[in-house]
Amino acid sequence: MSNITWGIIGCGNVTEKKSGPAFNKVPNSKLIAVMRRNAEKAADYARRHNVPKWYNDGEQLLNDPEINSVYVATPPASHIDYTLAALKKGLNVYIEKPITLNAAEAIAIADAVKQSTGKVSIAHYRRGQPMFLYVKELLDTNAIGDVRLAQIKMWQSLRPQLITHLEDNWRINPALSGGGYFHDLSPHQLDLMLFFFGEPEYYNGRALNQSGYYGCDDNVSGQIIFKNKVVVDGSWSFNVAEHERIDECKIIGSKGSISFPVFGHAVTIKTTDKEETINFAPLEHVQQPMIEKVVNYFNGDGDTPCAIDEAVVLMKIMDAFSQPI
Question: Does the keyword Oxidoreductase apply (predicted)?
Fold first, then answer.
C-alpha cells in the first residue's frame, strides 16, 4: 500500500486532539500540510504538531504536489467549495460533519464524486469506535430481540458543555453552520441510527426558537421510520436547566433494551433476566479508528466507512427536522 498524504483545510479546535494527530498515527498515512486563513495560527499549528508545511490559502494547499488527500475541517458553509475544488483535481476528500449546510449541497458533492477520480468519505467517526461497534453487534445478534423503537434525548443548557465555545461561536450562525447546536450535534446521533438500522422510509420533524437567546432554533424534534419498521423518536433541546441535562439513546427491543450516551463511554443492556453495563476506555483521538478505515479505503483496501450517499440521506433528515413550525 502507498502512503495517503494529507492536507488539512481548517486546522481549528476539532483538529487539535480529536483528529489531527491521528493522521500520523495510522499506517500508510502522513500529514503533509495544514491551512488556515489566519497565517499566524496556521504556522503555530504546524509548529506545535510537527507538520512540514502550512498555508493560509486553500488553493495553494490543493495545488501542493505532495498531497493526494484532503481533510476538510472548516465550518460547514465552506465544505462544498473546498470539496468540489479538491475533487476537480482528483484528490480524495474526508469531510467533517455535517457534510454541508443542507441536502442540496450534499447532492452536489455526490454528483461531483461520480465525475472525479477522487474518493470521498464522511467523518461520522462514531462508526469506527469500539463502543458503537459493540452496540451494532448486539443489534445484529438480536441480543434484545426484534428492535421496536429508539429514543434520542439530547437536552443541554443555553451554553452546552459538550461544545467548545469559541469567540465567533459559528455553531449558532446558520449562515456558517446550517442551523444551531442541533446541526452540530445531531449528526452524531442520526448517523448512528442509519448505521444501525439501514434505509429510512419516512422522516419528519419541526424546529423552533423557544428562548430567543440567539438567532436560530434551540428546540428540534423528529421521527424516522425505517424500512425494517424500527421507529426512532428524537428530541434536541438547548435551553434547559443545567440539572436537566441528558445525553441518552435508548433502543428498545422485544426482549430488552440497550442504552448509552452518545458522548459517553458506557453501554447498558437490560433483558428479562439480567442487567449489565460495559464501560469503554476513552480514546486519545476519537477519530483515529475512522481515519484508519478511510486511509484503507483511499488505498483501495475495502469499502468506504461512510459513503456520500449516506450523508445525503442524513442531510435530508436534518432538513426535514429543521423545518420551522
Answer: yes
Strands 231-237 and 266-271: unpaired
Q: Which residue has the cell 436534518?
A: 318
What is the distance between the alpha carbons of residues 220 and 236, in angstroms, rounded to a whole number? Answer: 5
CA 293 to chain centre: 15
Measured distance CA(314)–CA(250) in Å, rounded: 20
Q: At CA 14, angle to CA 9 and CA 15, rounded to 5?
A: 55
Assigned CATH topology for domain 130-282: Dihydrodipicolinate Reductase; domain 2 (3.30.360)
| CA gap 287, 42 in Å, rounded | 21
Question: Measuring CA to CA, how many Å separate 52 from each of 27, 67, 92, 161, 196?
Answer: 18, 12, 20, 34, 40
pTM value? 0.96
Residue type (1 letter), 130: P
**SS3 state of residue 197:** helix
- Kindly state the cell numbers that stand for 65: 504536489
Q: What is the pLDDT along the chain (325 residues), one digit of tens a residue?
A: 589 999 999 999 999 999 999 999 999 999 999 999 999 999 999 999 999 999 999 999 999 999 999 999 999 999 999 999 999 999 999 999 999 999 999 999 999 999 999 999 999 999 999 999 999 999 999 999 999 999 999 999 998 887 777 667 899 999 999 999 999 999 999 999 999 999 999 999 999 999 999 999 999 999 999 999 999 999 999 999 999 999 999 999 999 999 999 999 999 999 999 999 999 999 999 999 999 999 999 999 999 999 999 999 999 999 999 999 8
Every domain of the chain and the residues it spans: 4-124+286-306, 130-282
Q: Percent helix, strand and coil across the chain, each rounded to 5?
A: 35, 25, 40
The upper half-sphere exposure of residue 111, i.e. CA atoms within 13 Å in the direction of its Cβ, equals 7
Domains 4-124+286-306 and 130-282 share a fold: no
